[in-house]
Amino acid sequence: MIEIEQLTVRYGEFVAVDALDLTVAGGELFAFLGPNGAGKTSTIKALTGLLRPDGGRLRVAGHDIATEPLSAKASMGYVPDVAVFYDKLTALEFMRFIADLFEIEPAAARESMGGLFERLDLERFAHDPVETLSHGTKQRLAIASALLHDPPVFVIDEPMVGLDPLHARAVKAELKARSEAGTTVFMSTHLLNVAEEMADRIGIIDRGKLVALGTLAELKADDHSGALEEIFLRLFDGEGEGGDVLLGGGA
To answer: Of 29, 131, 198, 234, whose Cβ has the fewest other Cβ atoms within 10 Å?
Structure first.
């Protein structure tokens, strides 16, 4: 569902993403990890059409982001690390606005909205202006709005930002249920425990290149380690420079 071939992103002389190849299958919940400045955000911006890459090809649900941008974006839900809203709208009005953007039939929109509001604990905030909502509630609203059109691909940058444990559990359940139903979930996070708990497969990027790729079990076997944190720290031990490349059988 996500195909990245030889993706290259440069900022002047600095190479942020270096000929990256990565495929994420339909129904897979993929965790994308790496230290600050490793290339995660540049990869996501290129994937979602927010940044024009310097080289390579990206396809979302079979649509080339360069030649079929509208079809690719219509097939995707995206939540950035800092979501943007129309703050004067209520949560319900904002969701209706998103439904209109994606030309969702009113009855289908109401049904999808109701389910998302219930599962993400947004019902009691439906008539509150977005500007009055807490950071965590805005995060859940951003997730709900990005899932409203039931996209086959869902990309989210730091899904647990601002969430308390109760609402983090609700978001985890929603993402896991979506992947089990066939949605491709591409999740970038700094929280190693979230990746360890949720991901079907994990990719770790450093200086624009994948330095680890595989299931958690494969990465542990390759590294002879018992925890993802140990693997991550060993890869970046020594002034933040990546170490051995770990490519599991799922690569």
So the answer is: 131
Residue 75 is inside which H or E element, if any?
none
Spatial distance between the Cα atoms of 157 and 81, rounded to a whole number of angstroms = 5
Distance CA 121, CA 181 (A): 21
- State the burial class of residue 211 (Cβ atoms within 10 Å of its Cβ: 0-12, 13-18, 19+): buried
The residue type found at 94 is F
Output the pLDDT for position 82.
86
CA distance 210 to 201: 13
Rounded to whole angstroms, the Cα distance separating 210 from 126 reads 41
β-strands 153-157, 14-24: how paired?
A: unpaired
Check: pTM over 0.85? Answer yes or no.
yes
Where in the chain do CATH 3.40.50.300 domains reside?
1-75+177-251
pLDDT tens profile 85-94 = 999 999 999 9
Q: What is the fold, at CATH topology level, of the domain defined by 1-75+177-251?
A: Rossmann fold (3.40.50)
**What is the number of H-type helices and E-type strands within the chain?**
9, 11
